[in-house]
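Hi team,

As requested, here is the filled-out complex form for the flavin-adenine dinucleotide run. I kept the field names the same as last time so the parser does not choke. Let me know if anything looks off before we queue the next batch.

— J.
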Amino acid sequence: MAIVGGGFTGLWTARELLRRDPTLRVAVLEKEVCGFGASGRNAGWASGLFPMSNASVIRRYGRESFDHQRRVLQDAVVDLGASTRNDGIDARYVRGGTMNFARSDIQVARLTEEVAAAREEGIADHDLEWIDGADLDAHGRVAGALGASFSPHCARIDPARLVRGLSDADEHLGAMIFEYTTVTRIVPGRNDRRAEVITVGANVHADFVVRATEGFTTTLPRERRTVVPLYSLMIATEPLSKKFWDDVGFAHYETFADDRHLIIYGQRTHDDRIAFGGRGAPYHFGSSVEARFDENHKVFAKLEATLRELFPTMEGAITHAWGGPLALPRDHSPFVAVDYDSGMASAGGYTGDGVVLSRVAATALADLITSPDTESEFTRLPFVQRLGRKWEFEPFRWIGINAGLSLATWADRVETRRARVSRASRWLDRLVD
Ligand SMILES: Cc1cc2nc3c(=O)[nH]c(=O)nc-3n(C[C@H](O)[C@H](O)[C@H](O)COP(=O)(O)OP(=O)(O)OC[C@H]3O[C@@H](n4cnc5c(N)ncnc54)[C@H](O)[C@@H]3O)c2cc1C
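And here is what came back:
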């Protein structure tokens, strides 16, 4: 087995293959070091989230598949903690849930509607609830919070510790990991010829080649339109004081966001920093991926301003800033696919939810490869054995994606203005009364 990419997808796949069959010869080929990609740089939300709305999943795959998928993802959050512990990896896993704050009337309306819709979709109170007042304080507070939706299905992790720990665990199981090995081409198998991975230094023949390159996929030949590399950027503060954390909460390491359109996300780290990130970096023409795109000082400054707006009493300095590409599929659905004729396999398209999804996808891949004739709860998932459609040609991709990003920024600006007007009118009403 040859696995291209040493991130969560590649490393979980190696682990799952070797656990099923320790006699397999598994090679992981990574162009930098394991965890160089999004897996070593993300915000550490190990969540049961899926990058499509519940309504879209139900519409596309049906209610039964939706229920099944939701259960598998929720279980996978717990399982990730258990299996990393078993492998002796201290990934700083704490399952404290996740909060999506409403900081304006519009956001309250949207989130309470979402919670009400969840009930219709069969999601129970203990899986997703609206909290405010003392219940909100019991978890955590950001400035201007009127309430939040809360889900227990999320753990805070340290992603770099997890991915480096996984590569050690894989080697222990017998995987051969080749770092600083750039794959330049993957040649599908045909008739009696096995699939082949071409690298700068050597070629690898394999029964199956797993492409696990996510946001970097477009750098491989003929993959330019498979997914879109979207940059997400992050900052981290210095460790913050006990007084600050006593004031704002997050004692159970709840991860947090608010309900704006241009996604933001944060976590309290093991050493009491805030690691905080968001979208907003532009999409680069031709789906290009370059190291210089990992930094965008305008976006870093915006992230710092937003973080200080959420936590006005925070005095700590920003000590780190970084970013990286994640992969956006054309139809928003992740994919897992194995072609038995050519020996080509791939998994990805998780958008911003790949920490847990990559593990689920890897388990499905390993099941498909080692037991092709047996259905498992993972191979039954609706995004398994399907490849989404390709993205449009340029310049349509560039126009469409950047227009979407601008629209989200504009919608947030309008909502902020409307929230200010509604706050001012409430204040005037009180004055008149
Ligand atoms: C800033 C940021 C924050 C995020 N936050 C979260 C979060 O909180 N929760 C969540 O669930 N998801 C989050 N995500 C998404 C999540 O990190 C990814 O979905 C997940 O890590 C993808 O794992 P992967 O192994 O598929 O890809 P990657 O980790 O990107 O690994 C791909 C690997 O392939 C290697 N590679 C690429 N091309 C080649 C080649 N030609 N030859 C050899 N090797 C190659 C790369 O070097 C890389 O190491 C975030 C992403 C980013 C960028």
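Two things worth flagging: The radius of gyration is 22 Å. The mean pLDDT is 95.

Thanks,
J.
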